[in-house]
Design goal:
It is a single chain. The longest helix is centred in the middle third of the chain and has 29 residues. The protein is mostly helical and about 475 residues long. The mean pLDDT is about 90. Helix 6 runs antiparallel to helix 7, helix 23 packs parallel to helix 25 and helix 24 runs antiparallel to helix 25. It folds into four domains: about 90 residues, no CATH class; about 150 residues, no CATH class; about 70 residues; about 100 residues, no CATH class. The protein is flat and about 95 Å long. The chain is about 75% helix and about 0% strand.
């Protein structure tokens, strides 16, 4: 059962969602088929107890249909029906999370049925939401547009004939069209930024119509005061003109002010653009962005943007640690590694933690402790194999363990040449590290000319792993 679509989907729900789905299926409003309800209980209990991998369709059938002979067609139909119910449940959860959408549908429902006695209460609710809605992304303005449109339609002929009726206050057409404009410009900019980000990675021959007009309007009042418009406009500028740091810093300030009004998935989207900008600058050797990258990561941690379903990816975990180490925030890095280890998938946790601690000790120059942590890292993954060997090479050198280093360099060279998953360029980059480390070990420390020649060769060679460390070691020998 573990490989069936419904089992995989239900296993992906957290325990609260799973229990909520059980109640959903048991509700006669959504489901009247008791066999499906029983089927849900069987699968859910297997998930909770960890028995799903050994559960067979025949086992499930016995618990749902009792003594009836197994029928594969009926069983497949049961799976299909439960999958459709799960899809409806997911839609229902999203529906319940949007107060403005619910209010708008209340307005539509009351209007269609002429339930005039409900109008005032729903209108008051709509007005309250307009002032207090937490989520104010582009979608917020779309729902405001729909609400304003429905409010306009609710004005009955009797209200309009009332002697106290004021045509200017009743005709909210400007509010209707303004909110439509805000949504259109904000979402158009958002989609355009997505396209630009993809164009950075792939050759995509896609263009969007009317963008000159959209960009022109986004920079004018009142549009430039609407948070999603101002943020996505600045994001566009960072893509268009990467060299203009003012656009980046203005975007950072806007996100610090308004990030909280966006839903979490949109926060991650905006955050990804900011982080990508910083990493791009680092890749172009702009070292002042090491500190900026660390600050961005810190914000992502403090605002819980980086935690997805109470977990953090291994890559993000390692990148945050190294960002802190590069700016010598050693205590912060150590606290982060220990505090956030629990959010890393258990099967990847030991490697991620031990490798990150090894890096920490390397920056602290505790090279013996580096090797202690390295011994706890599994080398089955190519990434860990390459990076742990790189740290070990530097640590052995720093400890003057040249016999161990010589042996490591030889075995590492053989591994690099045999590893089929590595491109020719990547192999060359690591072979350069091996070559120059070996040269460092064997060079005459008193021969300044040879040392200067080695330094020049390292500096001018393209693609050298650990180049800054190698240059630092040559400089130390030169100063001796």
């Amino acid at each position: 059962m573990k490989d069936r679509k419904i089992s995989i989907a239900l296993s992906s729900l957290n325990i609260y969602e799973l229990n909520s789905f059980i109640k959903f299926v048991q509700s006669p409003y959504f489901n009247v088929n008791q066999l499906i309800a029983q089927f849900t209980l069987v699968i859910s209990e297997a998930i909770k107890n960890g028995n799903l991998p050994i559960l067979t369709p025949q086992d499930v059938w016995k618990q749902v249909y009792n003594n009836e002979p197994y029928n594969n067609q009926k069983f497949l139909k049961l799976n299909s029906d439960l999958t459709k119910l799960l899809e409806t449940f997911l839609a229902q959860k999203e529906f319940e999370s949007s107060e403005s959408l619910i209010t708008n549908l209340k307005l539509e429902g009351a209007k269609k049925r002429n339930l005039e006695n409900l109008y005032s209460g729903i209108i008051s609710e709509a007005e309250r939401l307009n002032k207090s809605e937490y989520n104010q992304s582009a979608y917020y303005y779309l729902t405001k547009y729909l609400i304003e449109k429905n409010l306009f339609r609710l004005k009955t002929e009797n209200e309009k004939k009332n002697e106290k009726f004021e045509i200017t206050s009743a005709l909210n057409i400007k509010a209707i069209t303004d909110n439509l404009d805000y949504f259109y410009i904000a979402d158009k900019l958002r989609q355009y930024c997505t396209l630009l980000s993809w164009k950075k990675m792939y050759k995509i021959e896609i263009e969007m119509d009317n963008m000159d007009y959209i960009i022109q309007m986004a920079n004018r009042p009142p549009f430039n005061s609407i948070p999603p418009i101002s943020i996505y406009y600045k994001m566009f500028l960072t893509y268009q003109d990467e060299g203009n740091l003012t656009n980046y810093h203005e975007l950072r300030q806007l996100t610090k002010t308004f990030m909280h009004i966006f839903p979490i998935d949109e926060q991650r989207e905006i955050y990804s653009t900011i982080l990508g900008y910083c990493i791009n600058k680092i890749n172009k050797n702009q070292s002042d962005f090491f500190r900026e990258t660390f600050e961005v990561y810190k914000d992502g941690i403090s605002e819980n943007i980086l935690l997805v379903d109470h977990s953090i990816s291994v890559t993000t975990f390692r990148n945050i640690a190294i960002a802190a180490l590069r700016v010598e925030e050693f205590s912060w890095a150590e606290s982060f590694i220990h505090d956030y280890a629990k959010y890393v998938d258990e099967k990847y946790r030991v490697n991620a933690v031990e490798f990150s601690l090894a890096r920490l000790e390397f920056y602290r120059k505790n090279y013996g402790k580096v090797l202690e942590h390295m011994y706890k890292v599994s080398y089955e993954d190519v990434w860990y194999n390459l990076n742990t060997k790189t740290l070990q090479i530097a640590s052995y050198y720093e400890l003057d363990e040249f016999d161990a280093l010589e042996s490591l360099l030889q075995s590492f060279k053989m591994y690099i040449r045999r590893e089929k998953s590595l491109s020719t360029d990547r192999k060359t980059h690591y072979l350069h590290l091996i070559k120059f480390t070996s040269a460092l070990m064997k060079i005459n420390h008193r021969d300044q000319q040879k040392l200067l020649k080695l330094k020049s060769e390292i500096e001018t060679t393209q693609g050298v792993v650990s180049k800054p460390w190698l240059i630092e070691k040559v400089d130390q020998l030169i100063k001796k």
